Amino acid sequence: MSDADTKSTIPVLGDWSELDQILAAHKVDRIVVALDDRRGRLPIRELVSWKFRGVTITDSADIQEELSGKIITQGMYPSWLVFSGGFNRCRSLLAAKRAIDLVMSLVLGLLSLPVALITALAVKLESPGPVLYTQTRVGEREKKFTIYKFRSMRHDAEKECGATWASKKDPRVTRVGGIIRKLRIDELPQLFNILKGDMSFVGPRPERPEFVEKLKSQIPYYAERCAVKPGLTGWAQINYPYGDCLEDAVEKLQYDIYYIKHLSVFLDFTIILQTAKVVLLGRGAR
Question: pTM, whole model, 2 decimals?
Answer without folding.
Answer: 0.82
